[in-house]
């Protein structure tokens, strides 16, 4: 039976094909989806503020009489403005005497509604402009109806505020009670947990009494959403752990570790040595290692991984080194090869772009044990791949890797399980890692190789291209290389593209000096671009976030991230890690489109102020919630992002208790009461398995 939640958004009042399309584009296709379009705050439209008492920057409802109104031409469109005054303004007051209303693109009917002498009621954020209080694009309210506390929804382009509010309100009235709960009714009743739909309703339809008590406080409904989110996390991790239990691994003696540690052109740092010995000990055990190796970008995780491969090869077993992109797999192959050769380890590459013959031959070598280390991409997860004796799986930068995929490879076939080492450059506080990566042990590399100077990070408006060019020129004069990262490849109205930026850079620096790299190029073209850039034939490389992880070009000394506000903090820190790797001075320019939201500004500012990946990760958690740490985000509407694992420990404890109860009653979630939980966990697993495409 199709649920009320599944009805199309167009079934809601005021949503026609055009506005419906806009909503769908944003991921809000159904009535149920819309319930998850949550307000950022609330505006109080109950009490008008007299004009003289208006304050710059504050939201207000204003009543007044139109004194003057006209339309004006503006960039091919028609704008409209009107001046209103208090009805019989008290004389001798300080403050504004009038309020200006302005529409930069006029809406039909404005002239009539705002004709001179009419009493009007409007609402919006007041901004002082040249000494005059102004509201741009005010909301026009009925002068008679009593005002209300209205939710302030995120803007959906092409959908008017009022229409959106009305549609969501209708969605709440029709369908909130149909929202499925993870927590079964019996347990909810016993523990006094309100239904999820009720919490959603309270968020969309705020209670005036609670609002008046503290207008800034988020409604209590949000805590309920956070609990729901945490229950899902806990439940999904718990089920996964249960399915992973058991199994034995081969023991690998630590013999080869000393020689391997000395095979690098550098000396391992104490932090690396410590990591090597923790990993080495874990490999010398029958219980399969499941370990997270974390460390800030550039701290030298790769060397630790290679030593582990050497230890495993010493026991005549094979290691797999999984990279998130082809570019990275190839690069890892190249950087690992000299040391692998030195140690007499046979290294092979397995990606999706091998020729048929190469592929055959690699499959063969893997299956017969004629290769010790295989570096590759998710192509390695294909069913054809067989190993003679797989001893160790290393996953690099797993935040771009589906967790489920990771497990499939770890557990398939064989009676003995391979050891597992997951490497991540998204450092998180230890206490948090234990929760998030439940089931993984933790090794942390907490210091970088000596001689690194932090890059200087600055924010630059997208409007100031001269500054960007100047900085790049300066970096190139120091024999450097410049990365320019864009959020999109081509054809985007909203996003800066590689295509346009490539053209821009060519025009400024000359075509011969600029290269480009992104996921839509053939792998040959990509390789050639990387080679040319590494060799210094091109000095500017424009690309997407394929550059984010691991790309190692020692000469690179500046990175420009276009529209940095569109990237996450962890991602930006990663990108910044691409420069200054040889210890030289380096810079990171974060260009931003204006206006910048407060949250985005806080994020970018954090990067300018701080170079420590762990501290940034904490900041990121504060700003955005934990879901992002996994690079996992459910599509549009159902992406729950309400819990903050740093602040919500108590709630997490509560979630864990709830999950204990659920799992104790029904370990596999087969009972009808647990159907919503089952569905949510499956969705969670699917989302986790979706590999983020590397541009
Ligand atoms: P990440 O932890 O980000 O994966 P990498 O393993 O790519 O870091 O190492 C970053 C760079 O530092 C590489 O160029 C590597 O050769 C170099 N490196 C690693 N360990 C050391 C060390 N102990 N001393 C000097 N350079 C090192
Ligand atoms: Mg790396």
Give a verbal description of the structure.
With 695 residues, the chain is of the alpha/beta class. The protein folds into four domains: 47-147, Nucleic acid-binding proteins (OB fold (Dihydrolipoamide Acetyltransferase, E2P), Beta Barrel), CATH 2.40.50.140; 179-246 and 638-695, no CATH class; 257-445, Rossmann fold; 456-610, 3-Layer(aba) Sandwich (Rossmann fold). The chain has 23 helices and 24 strands. Residues 400-408, 626-640 and 690-695 have low confidence and may be disordered. The structure holds adenosine-5'-diphosphate and magnesium ion (MG). Adenosine-5'-diphosphate binds at residues 266-269, 272, 295, 297-303, 425, 449, 550, 552, 581.
Q: How would you summarize what this structure contains?
A:
Helix content is 37%, strand content 19%. The chain has 695 residues and is α/β, with parallel strands linked by helices.
Q: How would you characterize the largest beta sheet? A: 7 strands, mixed
Number of domains: 4
How far apart are the first and last residues' alpha carbons, in Å? 39 Å
Q: Which stretches are low in confidence, meaning pLDDT under 50 for 5 or more residues running?
A: 400-408, 626-640, 690-695
Q: What is the helical fraction, as a range of percent?
A: 25-40%
* Principal-axes shape call: globular
